[in-house]
Design brief:
single chain; 163 residues; two-stranded antiparallel ribbon; 4% strand
Length: 163
Amino acid sequence: MRPSNVVPVVVARLLWGPSVVVAISLIIKGYNDVGDGFAAGVVVALAIALFYVALGASEAERALPFLRYAPRVMTAGLLLCIGTGFFPLLYGDAIFSHLPGPGAHVVTIGSLELFTPLLFDLGLFMLVVGVLTVLLHQFAVLEGSAESRSGRSGDDDPTDGRP
């Protein structure tokens, strides 16, 4: 590791835990105030982006092994969002109707209400994290291949011994 990379690596590792906590609180807070799965997904994706910037693609995926499952997370999130939206049709309700319906008992864990909008937000969170992680991976691989091509040619290296 080069000395110039020490600060971003340390910052990336230190911010990972708090960013996950903030994302969870955004999902939970979304039912009492403003907040949602999209914002939570962006927060986690920014922390993942910091890992890619600080470590590069292969080291970031070694530090956060779940990143290799990003396409599956993205697909599962999309299917969860679509399923949550169209599930009320089975009961004859409109698309994206909240279940349980108005006046029905809603199971709660603290202030978190367990009903379909929570599932939709979790699916949206998974979709955003998955899509942005796949994009970050593609950009990192593209940059790595560009660096390896320029390194092999020797044309761009100012320290090749010529005056």
